[in-house]
Amino acid sequence: MPVGIPKVPFQGPEEEDASWVDLYNGLFRQRAIFLGERLDTTLGNQIVGLLTYLNIEDPTTDIDFFINSPGGGIRPAVSVYDMMGGVEADVQTICIGTAASMACFLLLGGEPTKRIAYPHARIMMHQPIADLTINPSSGIDRFMAMRETAWLYHACIKGYAQRTRKPTWLIHKDMLRDTFMTPEEAQVYGIIDQIGMDTPEETQAPEIID
């Protein structure tokens, strides 16, 4: 039987008593933001709003951005990416499952030295999805839509190149196909800076007792 979103107690600095809030509301008040689904315009605007509010509230304390997403539209992702770089507070990105497509781009956009993936996370680069809201009705409109898509696509390539310090031709080549990476491979590539938990080098087999 589904139980819905759990409630947790939260007491603000100026509150005498704790109040019960849903789990994600409580985590948000602790400066934790979650992207756990496909990113669309509505969700992108919500994340931009949360980043803005948390930065106004305290620009000196880090914001933790947890990512487990198959990606989404290029426009909302670019808006979140720009806001992550625009706030004064450092945004620490943490991949806790999958960061694919534009979710990988957001993982990349965290504060340098503060981009993390957990040991069993999967990171995947590929071409972004063009989610232009216009409905081309003529050849000129179609041309403008294609030009806009190309501009956003090259902006993503430039962002990858700046963050990973790799040439744009290599980024373009790797984005032409689905490039899956382990956390170790993503760290070498320059998408993340560290792996969240150290995995044991060897796992000892359990002793068999007759």
From TrEMBL:
Catalytic residues (UniProt): 126
Coiled-coil ranges (or none): none
MF term (GO), any: serine-type endopeptidase activity
InterPro entries (UniProt xref): ClpP, ClpP/crotonase-like_dom_sf, ClpP/TepA, ClpP_His_AS
GO cellular component, one term: endopeptidase Clp complex
Domain of life: Eukaryota
Name of the featured protein: ATP-dependent Clp protease proteolytic subunit
Source species of the chain: Acacia dealbata
